[in-house]
Amino acid sequence: MAYPLRYALADLALALSRAVGDPVEVRSTAARAAADMIGDGAGVQLLRDDGRYEEISYHHIDNERSEPLARALSRAGQTPDNEYSTTLAASRRPIVLAGDSAAELATPEASITAAVLCPVIVDNTYVGFLILTRHAEDAFYSTPEVELARDIAGELSLAVSSARAQERLRASEERYRRVLETIPEGVLQLDPHGVATYANEPIGVVLGMPRAELIGVSLRGFLDNVGQKELDRRIAECKTGRSTVGATRLMRADGSRRSVRISMMPVQDENHEFIGVLCMITDTTDHIDARGLKRQLDHLRRLDSLGQLIGGLSHDFNNLMTVVAGSADMILSTADEESPHHQLAKDILDAVGTGRTLTHQLLAFGRSEGNRPEVIPIPDLLTDVQALFSRTLGEHIGLDLAFGPDVWPVKAERGPLEQALVNLAANARDAMLHGGMVRVAATNEVIEPGQLAEGAPTGKLVHLVVTDTGVGMEDEVRRRALEPFFTTRPTASGLGLATTAGIVANLGGHIELESQPRIGTTVHIYLPAAEQKTGTAGEGQKKNAVIGRVLIVEDQPDVAQLVRRLIEPAGYEIAVATDALMAVTQVASGARPDLLITDVVMPTMTGPELAGALRTHQPDLPVLYMSGYTAASLGPQLHLDENSMLLEKPFTRSTLLGAIRSLCGPQPPASER
Q: How far is CA 537 from CA 244, 641, 668, in A?
């Protein structure tokens, strides 16, 4: 008999070891085994983590009696302070009951005539009991049966101990996993060859790839040649048992670069064999060490101050250049073409144009929407900028324009778009000091989702391609070429390509660079095609309305008088006010101008505020704003409706009159002058 019981206990131990992952299955297996091996019924009643009994797992050889007896015997929710529980916890020996003492374990309907309670001890602590019950008259448990019950309880104790240890391990692993998933640092586990075997969510953000796609990918793919050699050196150090910390630069999946600090620690198996490294990766692109951070903050403060200074100086400088350009333009229009005055005036206008380009280039990066965009035919645009291209490139560089008449138009601000193209021409010129060729092409393309980079526009796009035959760029330079203030030439500002990229982005477009050293560079610009709409009859009538009376409001008297002199020969009736409140008083007194020309930034009242005040008397009053600031610099203080326009200083007579015609219609005919 001993051998079958020994085998049965061995089978029970095996069954319990297989069930340790499921505490309910452990209790059920032990109860079923005790009932089968000893007879009648058996149950397992264990304590929960809160110190109260959980539901009993009870099994009777007569299955129909299992559930009623489980209900009768269950102590679920009770504390272990009854007589039997305290005795089991103190003595740690089985309690054998018969007759009335056994019947007291449950209600009379249970008809318990004999019982054995064996304590379950885990880690030297009482955690519950195994109970055996019999229901026949004069039933009892023999000493061998009690010992067998005690052995079963011992196997149960081992299984419960293993189950709880695994539960603690799972909880610990879950806490560890949550820590790894919630910390801001990226965590990457590498095998000895640098291939990722684990990645958390933040490292996926740093590297620009979903974490699932990083598994099985080598970290070398995100490093340059120097970084790869450094990685090998650090893995070799970890193999000797040492941890390493250092800084490097990673290349993200989209080609951008991130500065990171990597802490690498060796990982060993249970035999203390080296199996890889655990990397803690902190993105320090924007948050570097204390000294570097202070230097960066100081630099940013200087840039912020410089930006404010540039904005103020640009405004004043553009006011001065407006007077210079306007005066030179008037001299040019009256001087004989062969006279020295004509050439001097022309030289002045050329210098003003250069100065205007410089100030607008400084302020154009990050330009926000503010001016009134227009539908621009691409053939007209490229034809207009051809002269600018030729002047920018010089005689030693050829220019080839290729476009068809059916190229779709785009909706944009003409000035910034022209500037973006001229910037590309200037960049190409600087790459071809000994001459070469620039080719500009425009085609229609329909782009499907995923065909270009993430975030690029789709649908009907105009594809502008600017190609040069210059020195080209290395990959590292090409990847950073669109960054503001990045340049490889000590005399350059680093704003040309960055300004172009900013303008293209604000137009809803996309820009890409292709370049090979000693072969050349190709810039691809994709702009959304405009939907051409035919204007209504009312709009056409509005544009053809003839204006005669113009009110000029400018706090700088010299600029105000210059504007008056520029438009006076066109036959307009002109009133000038150097104070906004004076202009409000004039209109309130009955003056009815057909057009308001006003500066935007003035001491007592801004241009938009003045326009609002005058429009209470004349709701349809057209407003031409002038400003030495760009629309991006003015920000939300300038809102342009369908009956207003911004003219950036400096300007000439032709650009001023052109803006008036664009906004209001033709100037008065000669018969009315």
A: 75, 19, 22
pTM score of the predicted model: 0.36
The two structure tokens encoding residue 610:
């003045």
The pLDDT score that the predictor gives to residue 309 is 60
SS3 625: strand
Q: Is 356 exposed, middle or buried (0-12, 13-18, 19+ CB in 10 A)?
A: buried
The predicted pLDDT at position 607 comes to 87
User: Residues 254, 255, 259, 260: what is their CA dihedral angle, to the nearest 10 degrees?
Assistant: 50
The Cα–Cα gap between 8 and 27 comes to 17
Strand pairing category for 397-403 and 436-447:
parallel
Is the omega angle on the peptide bond into residue 650 within 30 degrees of 0, that is, cis? yes
Q: At what angle do helices 414-430 and 340-364 cross, to 10 degrees?
A: 100
- For tokens 């782009």, the residue is 447
Please tell me what DSSP assigns to residue 55: -
Q: Does residue 369 carry a pLDDT above 70?
A: no
- Is residue 298 scored above 70 in pLDDT? no
In SS3 terms, 112-146 reads as CCEEEEEEEEECCEEEEEEEEEECCCCCCCCHHHH
Q: What is the DSSP letter of 568?
A: G
pLDDT score of 168: 78
Neighbours of 185 (CB within 10 A): 17
- Rounded Cα distance between 399 and 392, Å, is 11
Q: 616: which residues sit within 8 A by CB, 6+ positions away?
A: none
Place of tokens 């329909």: 446
What 3-state class would DSSP assign to 336? coil
CA–CA separation, 38 and 144 (whole Å)? 10
Phi, psi dihedrals of residue 152, rounded to the nearest 5°: -65, -40
Name the one residue in this structure whose structure tokens are 């052109």. Answer: 658
Reduced to 3 states (helix: H, G, I; strand: E, B; else coil), residue 312 is helix
Summarised one tens digit per residue, pLDDT across range 376-420 is 888 888 887 787 788 788 888 898 888 888 899 998 877 778 888
Q: How far apart are CA 457 and CA 480, in angstroms?
A: 22
At 41 the pLDDT is 92
Q: Environment class of residue 205 by beta-carbon count within 10 Å: exposed (0-12), middle (13-18) or buried (19+)?
A: middle
Q: Name which of 322, 371, 366 is nearest 348 in CA terms.
A: 322
Sheet holding 41-46, edge to edge: 57-60, 41-46, 125-134, 114-122, 95-98
Contact yes or no for 569/326 (Cβ under 8 A)? no
Contact 37, 171 (CB under 8 A): no
Burial of 49 (0-12, 13-18, 19+ CB in 10 A): exposed
Q: How many CB atoms lie within 10 A of CB 294?
A: 11
* C-alpha–C-alpha distance, residues 7 and 520, integer Å: 83
SS3 letters across 391-447: HHHCCCEEEEEEECCCCCCEEECHHHHHHHHHHHHHHHHHCCCCCEEEEEEEEEEEE
Is-contact 598 607, C-beta < 8 A? yes
Q: How far apart are CA 288 and CA 100, in angstroms?
A: 79
